[in-house]
Amino acid sequence: MSESNSQPESAQPMNYKVADERVIRVTQDAADKISSLLKRQNRPEGVLRILVTGGGCSGLQYKIDLQDEPAARDILVESKGVRIVMDPKSVLYVSGSELDYVDALQGAGFKVNNPNATSTCACGESFSA
């Protein structure tokens, strides 16, 4: 991972690290959906944040949100033309995963295919590692 101190002239420096797709890889379906959502929200330089928090049936769950830019201490991964950010703790749980977007009869949404998950709940919304 490398440090990035890119800063617009009027903004304070953003200190985050850049990683590669070994942390998380994005499928084309997920990249298309992320791009579409960012465009609809008028956030062309936006990022998708993945956060792993305690909770759910199996102990850990994902929270996914769109944001304007990476925060200090974030890990940034660019894959298929989109930018994904995570805090260092979440990277420990997600490393090696694939982010997909599924549009099925039972609902549509992002799905993290995580090789670190030792078990998942029946609804697929939480995991343990």
Please provide a written account of the structure.
With 129 residues, this protein is an alpha/beta fold. A hairpin with a 2-residue loop joins strand 8 and strand 9. The protein has one domain: HesB-like domain (Hypothetical Protein Aq_1857, Chain: A, Sandwich), CATH 2.60.300. It is globular. The strands form two sheets. An eight-stranded mixed beta sheet has the order 1-2-6-7-4-5-11-10. The protein starts with a strand and ends with a strand. The protein is built from two helices and eleven strands, in the order E-E-E-H-E-E-E-E-H-E-E-E-E.
Beta-strand portion reads: 35-45%
Which structural class is indicated by helix and strand composition?
A: alpha/beta
Gyration radius from CA atoms, angstroms: 15 Å
The amount of helix comes to: 10-25%
Distinctive features:
globular; eight-stranded mixed beta sheet; 16% helix; three-stranded mixed beta sheet; 43% strand; Hypothetical Protein Aq_1857, Chain: A; 129 residues
